[in-house]
Input
Amino acid sequence: MQNPDSLQVLLNDPNLSADLKDIAQKVLNLQRISFDEGVLLYEKAELGYLGTLANYIRNAKHGDKTYFNRNFHIEPTNLCVYDCKFCSYSRLIKQRGEGWEYTMEEMLDIVKKYDNEPVTEVHIVGGVLPQYDVPFYAELFTRIKQHRPDLHVKALTPVEYHYIFKKAKIDYATGMQLMKDAGLESMPGGGAEIFHPEVRDLIAKDKCTGDQWLQIHEEWHKLGMRSNATMLYGHIEKYWHRVDHMERLRQLQDRTGGFQTFIPLKFRNQDNQMSDVPESTVLEDLRNYAIARIYLDNFDHIKAYWAMISRNTAQLSLNFGVDDIDGTLDDTTKIYSMAGAEEQHPAMSTKELVELIKQVGRHPIERDTLYNVVTDFKDHVFAEESKPKFYKLPVVN
Ligand code: SF4
Output
């Protein structure tokens, strides 16, 4: 549980500056920190200080509980009409030979491969192409739910929704209602990048703006539905851009309460148009998780994608505000590996995930997408080794 003594030690430290003591006092009093204080944390606070504050908040909210889920991804295509500079994943339409475009039936076949597996979520996200439009996705969601009603459909980001709704000439509210009626149950957090146009116009110029991203989530929340939010950090943005990004999320969350989880995404520089930009250090990654935990007082969860930051850093992050390390994945996503992540075939069995969490003294909980407890693994003993299964996915050129 949270330990006020750890914060008291900070408050009594004669070497700690008055402004950082004020922030520690606010955390102890469960008060919100300001925009300027967020920037100050990035500019001035050391890792040990940030970890103490973030861990205090994390433990106050969740104790030692650490969440994961059993999921798989479908990435309909890696071709894209957009050309984001940081994207290692997409191939422009003119490079069609290097890509894949799944048909409806191929995507349903992927779902069917998990018929006898205890997965709870399918996460669908990929590039943007004209043939994947409103009728296509509505039919896909409907058919997945018809085939397996208990599988939670978490799909597409405002990047896709903005594109397909514009093409269909419908507004965001109408479009999100249509998607909900078709079977969509929640939205992942992607496509957020950095909201501020000063950065967004340089790295992701043509896709939906930061304001449009937020509007689509707001419409979704108004339907009583939940979603996540990400931030792509560690490239050309300044610290205040990160705080601006989180401030916009915090304000929307105050209005709707619809966000579940904030997921900082580390910029990776392999095989993209920003390969000359160095990647952030592990130290900076941990500082960033911690500041997110401190700043976003109205978000329940902070997630680290183990497949993106490595298993060891995911373990470390649990002491810097993170309480969720994502899912089993089953080697069904290429987004991280194509960007240069250490995990080239990301898949962990439930047993491996549980052990990863237990190794650092935390309490593993398998959750569903909406954070209902599926299995509490605190005292669970595994009867036999369950090895992850690898499925060969179809690739259409
Ligand atoms: S980040 Fe998404 S929208 Fe941008 S090019 Fe890559 S796949 Fe397309």
User: Anything to note?
Assistant: Residues 239-256 form the longest helix (18 residues). Residues 80, 82-84, 87, 89-90, 127-128, 159, 204, 207 surround iron/sulfur cluster (CB under 6 Å).
